[in-house]
Amino acid sequence: MSEVFATTGTIAAIATAVVPQQGSVGIVRVSGSQAIALAQTLFHAPGRQVWESHRILYGYIRHPQTQQLVDETLLLIMKAPRSYTREDVVEFHCHGGIMAVQQVLQLCLENGARLAQPGEFTLRAFLNGRLDLTQAEGIADLVGARSPQAAQTALAGLQGKLAHPIRQLRANCLDILAEIEARIDFEEDLPPLDDKVIISEIEKIAAEITKLLATKDKGELLRTGLKVAIVGRPNVGKSSLLNAWSQSDRAIVTDLPGTTRDVVESQLVVGGIPVQVLDTAGIRETTDQVEKIGVERSRRAANAADLVLLTIDASAGWTEGDREIYEQVQHRPLILVINKIDLVEEGESKNLQSQIVHLKSKIVTAAAQNQGIDALETAILEIVKSGKVQAADMDLAINQRQAAALTQAQISLEQVQATIAQQLPLDFWTIDLRGAIQALGEITGEEVTESVLDKIFSKFCIGK
After folding, report:
1. Whether the bond into 46 is cis, omega within 30 of 0
2. Which member of 65, 209, 231, 256 has the greatest number of CB atoms within 10 A?
3. Exposed, middle or buried by CB within 10 Å (0-12, 13-18, 19+), for 263?
4. Max alpha carbon distance in the chain (Å)?
5. β-strands 334-339, 307-313: how paired?
6. Beta strand 264-270 pairing with 226-232
7. In whole angstroms, what is the distance from residue 266 CA to residue 397 CA?
8. Rounded-to-integer distance, Cα 353 and Cα 400, Å
9. Rounded distance, CA 26 to CA 217, Å?
10. How crowded is residue 375: how many other Cβ atoms within 10 Å of its Cβ?
11. Phi, psi of 276 (to 5 degrees)
């Protein structure tokens, strides 16, 4: 391993968030061969408490030289191999806040432990065979999950639902390789290889890889969320729409055009998908320098969004200004929001909608009255399911690294098929087949480089 991820020695880190005046408990985690000895140096357990694995002891942390009391804590003992890292692990459950956990961590570092690198606890779990790489990445996804659906997908990876099909595909490739190499080594003793059977098996493997690759967009959506920009002319009710949708007063609402001068953001969850909603400044020509900056930011937000909510005022109808904004954003997935529908008669509403039939996805709202939000969320999910923003109903989803490896495996299998079609010698068949086997092994970690491990685990928090 690289110096960044030197996995020797006993490591320690704070395993919980450190926030002033918040959090009732702070945890310092220690892993390594000296973890229990270090705990015995720092922790005093009154009475006849037994230092056994998977027991919780009550006591005090004292400075080993001065015997000064540092904190009243609980000590959790987990002896190898029944621990997260498959090493001896102890956890000091201290009082929350800043000082207690920082002081306990400092004592650990002064008495033989070193500060853990980001992700080093999980890296040790991987290197010691407790987790494969897909499970390790599932842990990172679970920690960073922004919606219940994202958490469930991460748990599926943690439980091995991705690793199992990958291992099966790799095993199938290894079986094919064994058949080919047997013919190379013992050609005279075995019947000829059936090319059609080999091609059929490779096609089955490639089809399964294609199914897994189809989950990539869903994975990206669950991890990064959907960025939605509310755009439109000034005073059409964009801020009212944001406030009604988020059930808060995030944006200032007045009858004066140009009130919103900058992009206002809110975080929501729609159908299990994290949604970042951007309320933008009204787009119009203006001589106000501050408003002009806001308008330009609105245009940039619209162009960067995954989905645009083009909002118009029902009482004003489809105006030239609306048409100009539409022309600027029509290249993006788009929903037309006809707002202030409570200010017009039903006949006027139908007439307005008939004028803009070219916009297929449209809903009506009365944001100031909290009406139409359910219809808006339904329309967003329909856009997502249409494939414009992919989110298939699956219980697992691959990430970019896994997708790259699967793509490489797929390319290698295509090369094997081309080699067979060209009737090249069997030795040539094995070259790309080995490439597919290696690519699949990279996903679970059966074949992985040091640089890949560095990249994966450097994204973890220090205490994980």
Report:
1. no
2. 231
3. middle
4. 90
5. parallel
6. unpaired
7. 26
8. 41
9. 37
10. 14
11. -100, 110
The Cα 384–Cα 62 span in angstroms is: 57
Residues 6+ apart with CB under 8 A from 393: none
- Backbone φ, ψ for residue 284 (5° rounding): -165, 165
- Alpha-helical (H) ranges within 252-372 are 289-304, 320-329, 346-355
- Amino acid letter for position 452: V
For residue 299, the number of C-alpha atoms closer than 13 Å in the C-beta half-sphere is 12
Q: How far is 227 from 217, CA to CA, in rounded Å?
A: 14
DSSP H or E run through 194: none
Q: pLDDT tens per residue, the chain (464 residues)?
A: 444 445 679 999 999 887 666 678 999 999 999 999 999 999 999 999 999 999 999 999 999 999 999 999 999 999 999 999 999 999 999 998 888 999 999 999 999 999 999 999 999 999 999 999 999 999 988 887 777 777 888 888 888 889 999 999 999 999 999 988 888 877 667 777 788 888 999 999 999 999 998 887 677 777 777 888 888 888 888 888 888 888 865 544 445 444 444 456 778 888 777 888 887 765 555 555 555 566 666 677 777 778 889 999 988 888 888 888 888 888 888 899 999 988 888 777 777 777 776 677 888 898 888 899 999 989 888 887 765 554 434 467 888 899 999 999 999 999 999 999 898 888 898 999 999 999 999 999 998 888 888 888 888 877 78
Rounded Cα distance, 248 and 230, in Å: 16
Q: With contact defined as beta carbons under 8 Å apart, do 84 and 136 qualify? A: no
Look at strands 114-115 and 226-232 and give their pairing.
unpaired
pTM assigned to the model = 0.70
